[in-house]
């Protein structure tokens, strides 16, 4: 057993267990019970409080709003939000600390690149983290799974090439490494699932599809009644495969590391809904302008998210039908293991002193890591990057080459989207 990893996951769960977050669970449940007009008034009040606190305490926003001619008393109601300038990743990437409304030592530092290869540091307060967890607990309960009381299997990026499976008793979680899954190891995964008999499994869609494809190829099925997917686009074909092999109901979720928008699949599987009290979202043709209501320490007000949200208006209610932009590309190692884009965001986080990164596979077992460097990028950065990547995907399992390129050499899709992973071996 990887004792260090076991202790880390045990501590993480302890700090966000239902006992710790029970106040925020009640808060989330109350939001679900609010009538639309009551929720609208709550969101408006919360937004005004957030704006005033941000104006008073965030150097970045105080300067931004002052330059735009906006005073503290300029924002008095929800409709006034349109007066505020849009904030982008590029604006906050260089100096994220300037956004803060409290000392940095009180906060949790996270790194995000989404699946775009655009690395950025973001922060969240403990209350923001607890609110996020409370929403997860509430939603999963609605789907028939009780966190902490029933066994959950987790096929995400928690384990690496050194640890294939790990069961953490305090959280009743069976962790399965997405970095070792291939046709030679899948029987071990299958046996662990049978041993612990999880009621639910969470994972990236591509990892779950890989697991189910391998099980199906060997004539195996198992029953895991509830599946929670996130971080990548879930196609109808992949949903059907997962549901078939695991005899499951599949529930998808969309969110951001920045905690500015969260959409969960309706229980009847007819689209998605906005989590109540979580954020204010302005849906536009090729982007969403989001305002987080849960993380006032690192406020993101009218923050641009480039993913495309498709929706219909039915009886005055917004019904979100699909979410675009969550890349599902993967690369393949020499042993046949798939490394998906969501898990590979790790690469963008560990390479120092870069502006952008893109992973390109032209041949199975080989990987070009194309980086757009900052001025401090040097040979030491290259050596550290190769070591970090090998630790993740297994030394010898992928021939890794780091290439220094310009922004003009990055590969964009036909819709002008920049993806972290480009796989040219897939026809």
Could you please describe the fold and organization of this structure?
It is a single chain. By secondary structure, the protein is of the alpha/beta class. The protein has eleven helices and 21 strands. Helix 3 packs across helix 4. It is globular and about 65 Å long.
Going across the biggest sheet, name each strand in turn: 4-5-3-6-7-8-9-10
Distance between the termini: 40 Å
- Strand tally is 21
Structural class: alpha/beta
Low-confidence stretches: none
Q: Number of helical segments?
A: 11
Basic shape: globular
What is the helix content? Answer: 25-40%
Radius of gyration: 22 Å
* Mean of pLDDT: 87
Brief descriptors of the model:
alpha/beta; 427 residues; 24% strand
Kindly summarize this structure in a few lines.
The protein is 33% helix and 24% strand.
Could you give the topology of this structure?
Elements: H1 3-15, H2 18-33, H3 36-57, H4 59-67, H5 89-93, E1 108-112, E2 120-124, H6 126-142, E3 152-155, E4 165-168, E5 173-176, H7 186-196, E6 200-203, H8 205-217, E7 226-230, H9 236-246, E8 249-255, E9 262-265, E10 272-274, E11 279-283, E12 288-292, E13 303-305, E14 308-314, E15 317-324, E16 330-332, E17 338-340, H10 341-350, E18 354-361, E19 366-373, H11 379-393, E20 399-404, E21 421-423
Parallel strand pairs: 3-5, 3-6, 6-7, 7-8, 18-21, 19-20
Antiparallel strand pairs: 1-2, 4-5, 8-9, 9-10, 11-12, 12-13, 14-15, 16-17, 18-19
């Amino acid at each position: 057993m990887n004792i260090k990893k076991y202790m880390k996951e045990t501590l993480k769960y302890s700090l966000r267990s239902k006992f710790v977050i029970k106040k925020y669970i009640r808060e989330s449940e109350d939001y679900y019970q609010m009538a639309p007009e009551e929720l609208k008034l709550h969101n408006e009040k919360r937004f005004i409080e957030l704006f005033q606190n941000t104006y008073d305490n965030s150097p970045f926003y105080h300067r931004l709003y002052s330059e735009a001619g906006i005073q503290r008393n300029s924002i008095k109601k929800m409709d006034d939000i349109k007066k505020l300038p849009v904030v982008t990743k590029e604006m906050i990437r260089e100096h994220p600390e300037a956004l803060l409304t409290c000392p940095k030592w009180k906060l949790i530092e996270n790194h995000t690149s989404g699946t775009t290869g655009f690395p950025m540091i973001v922060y969240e307060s403990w209350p923001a983290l607890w609110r996020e967890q409370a929403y997860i607990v509430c939603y999963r309960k609605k789907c028939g799974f009780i966190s902490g009381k029933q066994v959950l299997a987790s096929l995400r990026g928690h384990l690496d090439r050194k640890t294939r499976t790990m069961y953490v008793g305090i959280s009743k979680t069976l962790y399965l490494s997405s970095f070792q899954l291939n046709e030679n190891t899948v029987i071990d995964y299958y046996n662990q699932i049978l041993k612990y008999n999880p009621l639910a499994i969470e994972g990236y869609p591509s990892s779950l599809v890989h697991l189910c494809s391998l099980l199906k190829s060997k004539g195996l099925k198992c029953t895991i009644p509830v599946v929670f997917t996130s971080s990548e686009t879930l196609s109808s074909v992949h949903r059907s495969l997962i549901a078939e092999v695991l005899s499951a109901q599949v529930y998808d979720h969309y969110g951001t590391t920045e905690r500015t928008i969260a959409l969960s699949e309706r229980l009847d599987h007819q689209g998605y809904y906005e989590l109540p009290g979580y954020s204010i979202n302005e849906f536009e043709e090729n982007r969403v302008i989001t305002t987080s209501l849960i993380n006032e320490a690192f406020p993101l007000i009218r923050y641009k998210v480039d993913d495309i949200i498709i929706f219909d208006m039915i009886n005055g209610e917004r019904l979100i039908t699909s979410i675009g932009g969550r890349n599902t590309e993967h690369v393949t190692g020499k042993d046949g293991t798939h490394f998906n884009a969501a898990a590979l965001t790790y690469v963008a986080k560990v390479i120092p002193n870069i502006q952008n990164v893109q992973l390109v596979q032209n041949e199975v077992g080989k990987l070009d890591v194309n980086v757009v460097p900052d001025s401090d990028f040097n040979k030491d950065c290259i050596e550290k990057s190769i070591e970090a990547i090998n630790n993740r995907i297994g030394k010898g399992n992928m021939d890794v080459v780091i290439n220094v390129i310009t922004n003009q050499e990055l590969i964009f899709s036909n819709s002008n989207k920049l993806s972290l992973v480009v796989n040219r071996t897939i026809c």
